[in-house]
Please model this.
Amino acid sequence: MKCSHCSRDAVYFQRHSGRHLCKKHFLNDFLKRVKRSIKKYRMIEREERIALAVSGGKDSIVLAHVLSKLYGERRDIELVAITVDEGIKGYRPPTVKIAKSVCKDLSIEHHLISFKREIGMNLDEMVERGERNPCSYCGVFRKYLLNKKARELSASKLATGHNLDDETQTILLNFLQSDIERLARLVPSKVQEGLIVRIKPLREVYEKEVVLYALINNLPLMVDECPYSRTPVRAVVRDFLYEFEKRYPGRKYSVMRSFEALIPCLQSMYPQIRLKRCKVCGEPTPKQVCQACELKMELGILGLHVSDGDYAYKSRQKSSKN
Amino acid sequence: MKCSHCSRDAVYFQRHSGRHLCKKHFLNDFLKRVKRSIKKYRMIEREERIALAVSGGKDSIVLAHVLSKLYGERRDIELVAITVDEGIKGYRPPTVKIAKSVCKDLSIEHHLISFKREIGMNLDEMVERGERNPCSYCGVFRKYLLNKKARELSASKLATGHNLDDETQTILLNFLQSDIERLARLVPSKVQEGLIVRIKPLREVYEKEVVLYALINNLPLMVDECPYSRTPVRAVVRDFLYEFEKRYPGRKYSVMRSFEALIPCLQSMYPQIRLKRCKVCGEPTPKQVCQACELKMELGILGLHVSDGDYAYKSRQKSSKN
Model:
């Protein structure tokens, strides 16, 4: 099959547009769409220092490659990468290696931080010691560390590799579970002191396009799934969206458009809360104590007694477990 | 298996509540939930005359039976049934017979109106003559006639048999197709001159519960599908919701809750348009000419030339087709 734009062989059939694309036209189209999303949501403007969350998985590697391609030559825009090593035996070390090497190739300053050093405990140890599911610890601490590190690096934005498939799964999942508050959290946030604005430049490209972009550019594709990954309900939604998109190409975009249409409503239903400073660590939080410090206390990593009236940390500690 | 509330044998396992129910407790629960929906949405209050749209299918038959049970003894509430015979050979006659006989048994005044007499043409003839899909003609003319007849009967509300499955399919379908305007149309409407407020008393009971209610009460179950029914995308959504509900019982309620949470937003995004009178037939419409009259003109049933500047009916007529 020939490319719809030139005489070269097509490597990709873009079902939702009905076009066959050769390598060159696929890459052009991919970059054009990422650029359009960035512009539409004003993700990156002038004089910015963008911190990239680079786990070493396919999405974050493509994110680094794409942003480097789009902004590498710009003098007023700086890219800096952060990799969080959660401490997952067997799974994380190879991706950390990939992250380091790709950032080196792209001349992006790379920072490696670990749960062990920053939080005081590996994820593997948390899972062994605590009672929550692994994703609860990982999600909270990863976000916490990424924000803290990005701020320390004076970044104006924190970019993550979420693609169209990730985003639409989350949107539909929250809608199906009637979790409108969580749906509202997907609304791009405004600047708040201490909190680095998160951006998702790949939110309008399909996951399979991210994979193809990586393949064409010879980027290392790490496809192992996290051993702790166990979200069966998300898998059900993912499979449905896959089938639905297959029958009715472009429907993932429709889900995104539905969500976007509801953004003003979601903003008025859940206005951005004015953040406080965590009484323990000083990081931004809507509560007295941030979730990371709460989890630390649960895990017995933090045994502070804060003299704040309504917050009895001591009682929340599982001293019996240690 | 025994009933969760008494020593009788259970006939139904209500997955979302985890209860086994005998006939008696199933019926109690069913009626209680219908009553709760009616109250929550103020569907039926004092001194009302409720017109029921009774096609003769299982949902509308159960609707008639339930409302008769709940309000049959009330002196200030009157029920009256309307059956629309669209003129679908083979399919409609048996359901018309069922509708008539059930209304007779329930002592509900019954009115039969037909496309042939009111519009001037059977649905079968429209499909043969016109170019649109059958559901377009049927949907527009059925709504049109039901509203007109209900108004002529001085009804304060028009009740239809939509159940939880129907409603959640429509909600999710519109969300997946990014048709937020159509989603907004599901918001219960306010009183407007000429337009009878539509209510859906069965919107919070599952389709399978409607079937069980009919079986227990020995109501005639017409399960034939309309020969014109061909909505593959809705079938895909229906199957997904079925599977999702099976794995995660109660999720159809979650979809309903999501929709309800968004109602204030949808209302502010699509405020109720002040209706005009159709220049041709005088029925309420947001446009100059109502959809029913537009379709009639297309089908060559109506050949009026209305002296309204911006509406050249004549040109819309397909005179060549007759």
